[in-house]
User: Fold NADH dehydrogenase [ubiquinone] 1 alpha subcomplex subunit 13 from Sporothrix stenoceras.
Amino acid sequence: MPQDMPPTGGYGPVQYKRNLPSRGFRPAVLLGIMGAAMGYGWYKLALGVREQHEMAREKMWSRIHLIPLLQAEEDRDQVRRHLADQARERELLGENTKVYNSERFVRPTFAATPRTTTK
Assistant:
């Protein structure tokens, strides 16, 4: 039996590739979009860090400017306590004892602690 031969002119082309349209963006476009989004995020992060530094600086300067006010308030409280202590001493002893060399108020340099402490 003779062997079958191809037709004259050959067989038609065989379609072995799939003919599907590409979906989505090309990888370079996706990479560019991702880079732009990350760049925007880093920009906003830098702005936020700069804002936090500015707020911290403003807070520090506001505290620096409040120090004299707080110091004056503490001094007034110390003088009030000192005068109340002198009045209490006058009630108990009948007169003020001169402990210091002058009448000028001097901030106390000791701290009152309790006699017994529990550990």
The CA atoms of residues 63 and 70 lie 10 Å apart. The chain has a mean pLDDT of 87.
